Amino acid sequence: MSEAKHASVDFNLSVDWQNENQEIRLFGYMEPLFGDDSQVIQWHFAKYKDRYCIRPWIYYLIQCVTQENAIPPKLITQDQVIELPPIEREAALAQLKIYVKRLFTKAK
Fold first, then answer.
1. Please, which residues have CB within 8 angstroms of residue 88's CB and are 6 or more apart in sequence?
2. Tens digits of per-residue pLDDT, 70-92?
3. Considering Cα of 64, then 67, then 71, then 76, what sign does the dihedral take?
4. pTM for this structure?
């Protein structure tokens, strides 16, 4: 396996919030990415827990929205190896909008 790398992310997401269309800027770094296709591979030295899927899934949604041919992430734990399911760009965009809108609703 190749060395882990990171990638910067910076894009806008239109979200309907408080009866207005808001442009939300999402930016930061995604890691750990592996291979030429920058597949997200997350590992834990413990037994599988559902919460371990959150980060790789969010990263994958971002990859689906910002690049072509995103490869579904892989989660490796002490007792399981899980490849998360593929998703189409429009579905990924819709899910990201839901998550961002929820974050703003909770922060309110």
1. 64
2. 999 999 999 999 999 999 999 99
3. negative
4. 0.79
